[in-house]
Amino acid sequence: MHVSMRASLLITSAAFAAAVLLCRSDAAAAEDRLILVLAPAADDARVEPVREAIAFWNARLEELGVATRLAEPRVVVASPAARTLENYARGVAQRGVRLPGGEAEPDAPRELRNLDADIVVLLSRQDILSYTWPLPRIDPPRYLVVIRLARGLDRGDAMVSRHVVAHELGHALGLLHNDSPHTLMCGPCQPLTSEPDETGFLPLTGAERARLVALYGRP
Ligand SMILES: [Zn+2]
């Protein structure tokens, strides 16, 4: 994928971005989950993997016959909210994202709550854990998905990024970890011996497909 083509899809004006955040896209159906991607730069290598992971999930949801889809993501570069979200993301990671939040969990910052999206994907500048976090006391649930800055061997590895993003979006769709180490929603995982299936991603389990139908299927 050419960087110039990718960059042309991005919204690069913060002022325009602020206006976009105030209204839902008319193109999005009622069942669509709105996704906002905050990228530190227009040429961030994680933007394309985000699009691929969204396409993956939409193909699976279509296969399952449910109406819900992940909407075409809106990408905002250098958002004024990014600094606050980075601080929040670090704080959640330091508290330990595996602990249940409960009543003591502080509210998400206003800058995050005000974003009009069901799923906010922060392409982080920090070398922290990638994770998915439900915003406390918000119903219907909304999620912050943090995708860490890739370093070392993973740097620029689109395959690693798309699996990480697909895994985290799976959480935002309501899936938990399973104990099958070679599947997409593994936890723990054995990525070195895992092979993608014909979708180009790691497989879902039958239980996960059933859960998605239970969550999003029409009665
Ligand atoms: Zn996970």
Key traits:
single chain; 219 residues; alpha/beta; 5-stranded mixed β-sheet; 5 strands; 34% helix; disordered N terminus; binds zinc ion
Describe this entry's structure for a reader:
By secondary structure, the chain is α/β, with parallel strands linked by helices. The protein has one domain. It is built from seven helices and five strands. Helix 3 (47-63) packs across helix 6. The longest helix is centred in the N-terminal third of the chain and has 17 residues, at 47-63. Bound molecules: zinc ion (ZN). Residues 167, 171, 177, 187 line the site of zinc ion (ZN).
List the helices and strands and how they pair.
Elements: H1 3-8, H2 14-21, E1 35-39, H3 47-63, E2 74-77, H4 82-95, H5 110-113, E3 119-123, E4 131-134, E5 143-147, H6 158-172, H7 206-216
Parallel strand pairs: 1-2, 1-3, 3-5
Antiparallel strand pairs: 4-5
The site of zinc ion has 4 residues, from helix 6.
**How many H/I helices?**
7
Bound ligands, named by name, code or SMILES: zinc ion
Going by helix content, strand content and strand pairing, the class is: alpha/beta
Total of domains? 1
What is the H/E order? HHEHEHHEEEHH
Strand order of the largest sheet: 2-1-3-5-4
Rounded average pLDDT: 83
Biggest sheet features: 5 strands, mixed
Instruction: Count all strands and give the number.
Output: 5
